[in-house]
Amino acid sequence: MKIENNFQSIPTETGYTEVFIHRYKNGEVFNGKDFAATEVPISLVFNGISHAVMLATPVNLEDFALGFSFSEGIIDHRSQVLELEEIVHPPLGIEMHITTTNACFTRLKERRRSLVGRTGCGLCGIDSLAAFNTGVSAINPNLAGQFTIRQRVLFDAFNQLSQIQTINKVTGSMHAAGWINAQGELMMMREDLGRHNALDKLIGALMQKTTDADKNGCVIMTSRASYELVQKTAKAGIPLLATISAPTSLAIQLAQQSGLTLAGFVRNRNLVIYSHAERLI
């Protein structure tokens, strides 16, 4: 029996798509339906000029646009984005139109690059090893605060994170980035097929918080700790990043240099600390 699925629409509310499947179980074949996480091209258009196309899950796209703009160094503050507009072009994808201040747009034009995002990782838009730069100064002064958190509440927060991943519960294929306070309370969570996108969404959501109390916390993630995740976290002035899987060597190096506390293998009431252990008590 031939399987045919129609992907003419883009579900921007649920983040997943119903698909027809053949299921093989215990030697038997069943025809039925399942749900797959939605992955679509997202074009980020700044002041009318397309800058990047990223593959992402089409939920919380305003947060994604803000977080991406900040992580890429296009903006420094939420106030520098004057307007955000989401335009859906089924079945092709979605355009996020971001209107920035003239100063930010001038900065973008000076360093504009072309990149096509994937749910994997890599260094896009540079043409030589000499052009590679962390984008984070050694010992970020924004990471010099007195934030600490107990290991036991960090474990509890990871348990909470898996329980509230609504799209992952349906599809089994999503990464999550969670924001927790010093008491281990999970204050916010964003999901995406790409771990970098999930973190950009979380950072964008945090940029819209107005009080310092809202921003006093750390990030936990259901992924490995890649270099890019450490870079984004440190750039945002977040003091601690904890992940369920291992970090890479470059991630550890950057965490040490920037002043970020990096923890990995946070599972089954165990963890490994790779840098600046004083924040985990």
CATH superfamily of the domain at 141-279: Cytidine Deaminase, domain 2
- The shape, in one word, is globular
Q: Radius of gyration from the CA trace? A: 20 Å
Oligomer status: single chain
CATH topology of the domain at 141-279: Cytidine Deaminase, domain 2
Q: Numbering strands along the chain, what is their spatial order in the largest sheet?
A: 8-7-9-10-11-12
Structural class, please? alpha/beta
Strand content: 25-35%
Low-pLDDT regions: 114-120
Assign the CATH architecture of the domain at 141-279: 3-Layer(aba) Sandwich
Strand-and-helix sequence, N→C?
EEEEHEEHHHEEHEHEHEE
Number of helices: 7
In the CATH hierarchy, what is the class of the domain at 141-279? Alpha Beta
Tell me the number of strands: 12
The termini sit apart by 58 Å
**Largest pleated sheet:** 6 strands, mixed
List keywords for this structure.
single chain; 281 residues; alpha/beta; Cytidine Deaminase, domain 2; six-stranded mixed β-sheet; four-stranded mixed β-sheet; 7 helices; 12 strands; globular
In short:
With 281 residues, this protein is an alpha/beta fold. The chain contains 7 helices and 12 strands. Helix 1 packs across helix 5, helix 5 runs parallel beside helix 6 and helix 6 (227-235) packs parallel to helix 7.
